[in-house]
Amino acid sequence: MKKTKSNKAWFLVLPVFILVAFSAIVPLMTVVNYSIQDIFGATRYFVGVEWYREILNNSRLQDSLVRQFVFSGSVLLIEVPLGIAVALMMPKAGKWSVVTLLVLALPLLVPLNVVGTIWQIFGRADIGLFGWGLNALGMDYNYAANPMDAWFTVLLMDVWHWTSLIALLCYSGLRAIPDAYYQAASIDRASNWAVFRYIQLPKLKSVLLIGVLLRFMDSFMIYTEPFVLTGGGPGNSTTFLSQALTKMAVGQFDIGPAGAFSIIYFLIILLVSWLFYTAMTHGDSK
Amino acid sequence: MEWMAWTTPSALFFVGIGCIILTMVCWEIVSPTVASKGFLPIITTRGDRIFISLLSAAFIHLGFIGLTMLPLSVPLTIAIIWLFIVMKWG
């Protein structure tokens, strides 16, 4: 049968394109314009790539970048396997599956600043159950004074908040696997590990791709929760890139350097997201 | 366009990007892309290769700006050569 070829469908994409242009592309272009100028109110001076040079050689920002990669890496290493494990253990059907889904969805409904506040109180050694409990067990825990404790608390807070997302995505992926696969595995007397390795994990690939990308991008741009919990401290130990950027753009009102910083930040996120995407979809294109 | 704080170099930069995208669209209409495998470790379409080239160009520039005091013409030349290499043999 001869197919009719028409490009009219492209017009249907036009509203989205206009929306994205005004919400993302135009602001990004403006930031590029800012990044090559020194701006004092209405007065502007062209400085070329000077801000980029300054940002790239700023040791505090380099430390923040390293911190950011360590944080995002830790988040992915903990949340992805934990999310898969939780999804595998969840009831497949019945009222308990509904209860589990509701409980898992709860942390995702809490606003970011509220999450920070919850953990700020929860971790306090005097009135917080978590902080008080650790101290009662003999651990000298104080997230406001000890950088390691602060890191531990920020990570734990993120794991509490976002593991559910991976678990829910994986759960939906697992439910979409037809029973025939499990029946075939049962006939072959496949072990639980073999079922997971050769049936469940390959079938979870697409949802895991979305989960990993979302968690990477979110954790790499994290701002509110650590800001409320630790304010970037003690010292600069939990100051991540977005916090450093906000301080520069809003606190110091250095729009030019903040613009250059934003572009570098954006390029890093774009590169790493593309690498993740390519690595995870590469197998399909072979 | 005062609110976007335009400068001539940034306008030329975006016109350049726009021209690249327009050229790619016209090229795609005239001769649709075929995914192929070159020296890059993945199978790529023409669009993938231009994306890789542009992203690499950004990091080549950042590398030169951050590590050297050489004029921008040096990373620009390297980025253009790299773009041709990736488009032809990537």
Poorly predicted segments of chain B: none
Biggest sheet architecture of chain B: none
Question: How far apart are the termini of chain A?
Answer: 30 Å
What's the number of domains of chain A?
1
Low-confidence region ranges of chain A: none
Protein traits:
heterodimer, A: 286 residues, mainly alpha, MetI-like fold, two-stranded antiparallel sheet, 13 helices, 2 strands, 74% helix, B: 90 residues, 3 helices, flat
Q: Overview of this structure, please?
A:
- The complex is a heterodimer of chains A (286) and B (90).
- Chain A has 286 residues and is mainly α.
- Chain A has one domain: MetI-like fold.
- Helices cover 74% and strands 3% of the residues of chain A.
- Chain A has 13 helices and two strands; from the N terminus they run H-E-E-H-H-H-H-H-H-H-H-H-H-H-H.
- Chain A has helices at residues 10-35, 50-56, 59-89, 95-109, 112-122, 129-136, 147-175, 179-187, 192-203, 205-220, 224-229, 241-251, 255-285; strands spanning 37-40, 43-46.
- In chain A, strands 1-2 form a two-stranded antiparallel sheet.
- In chain A, helix 2 (50-56) crosses helix 13 (255-285), helix 7 runs antiparallel to helix 10 and helix 10 (205-220) runs antiparallel to helix 13 (255-285).
- The relative contact order of chain A is 0.13.
- Chain B has two domains: 1-32; 34-90, no CATH class.
- Chain B has helices spanning 8-30, 46-67, 73-89.
- Chain B is mainly α.
- Chain A binds chain B through residues 26, 29-30, 32-34, 36-37, 39, 44, 46, 48-49, 52-53, 56-57, 264, 267, 270-271, 274, 278, 282, 285-286, and chain B through 3-7, 9-10, 13-14, 35, 42-43, 51, 55, 58-59, 61-62, 65-66, 72.
